[in-house]
Amino acid sequence: MAEALRHAPLRFVVSTWPLRTAAYVFTGIATGLLALAWLPVALVAGAFPLAALERRRVALLGVPALADPHRVPDRPGAAAWLRARYTEAATWRELAYTVLHGSVLLVMNVAAVLLGAAPALIYASGVANFATSSAQTGVAVSHPADASPSAAPLLAGGAAVAVLASAVLLAYTTAAAAMAQGELARLLLAPGDEARVRLLTRSRARLIDAFESERRRIERDLHDGAQQRLLRLGMTLVTAQLELDHDPAAARPLLAQAAGEARAALAELRELVHGIHPRVLTDLGLPAAVAELAGGLAVPVHVRLDLPVRLPPPVELTAYFVVAEALTNAARHAAATAILVTGEHTRGTLTVEVRDDGRGGADPAGGTGLTGLADRVDALAGTLVLTSPPGGPTVLRLELPCSA
Question: Which Pfam families match (predicted)?
Fold first, then answer.
């Protein structure tokens, strides 16, 4: 939303974002009143239900719902649950958010609505004053259009202008209030540093297991594939060497066979190495490697990667495998007819987005292969967000810090 408002402020008004921000602000007023009423109870019983609702409500702003920052209690039972909750910093951040939501944020949301509706309210007030003054002077005006035949179009035009001005102003005032409240919710309700440390520890543990599994796979592929071909090549060359001493003509087919086995072994080794680290990525960088991926798909892929400088190798490699997995999923499972890959490097962060027009409904836990990639992204302190409502579109957004 912030990017849409910053890059195209005029187009923002005619997009769906004003409806989203208005919904967020108006429901924020309702939950703010609820927070105000719940505050005495929250001081004793905690703000857990309201905080859980607020973590889900940020989805109105086009971002994923915030993760639950609370850890699982060490032991079952209400006492262990209460002990775990009231010794967590997240619980007190939730309480702080509830206090702010029932006071400062409530006033801010109401002010945003009143400020946005100001043109319509001022016009309505002026018409009401006109009707009142007309009644006091003895001129009966039951409806503004009854004032005079010539005044009716003027009043109708003024009403249309006032409503249009309020709609435009509401789009911007509710957007500003929604962004402020959404950012505060992210700061206070999302997992803090302690939760990120736990997540990073688990991700790195899974990465170690994944790397060990990958090492065994490579070892098995080398043993069952390239090693067997090289053994056959050696045996063929030995046989050809023996034949050369007795029948040079019989050695020629063996040498041709050895050449074919050498080419097959080289191709198999090249394919194996390509799966570990693509050569084009090392030589030419991420845009060229993604373009090569796009060229190998039957689905039309449009690539727009604005990367003026080379990125650190771990960042390039992680982004490459994320894009490769997203393209594969879109082509094989989403029935997509067009895919768009965009990316840029701004303020030390690489942002890549893969969007397809497929049927949507993608589930990261449903075997899409993104779980392992998410662990790789977590290890680099990045974020990987998948949005795939039923019917599409599916959008995979990757953000990676590029500090060397």
Answer: HATPase_c (PF02518), HisKA_3 (PF07730), Sensor (PF13796)
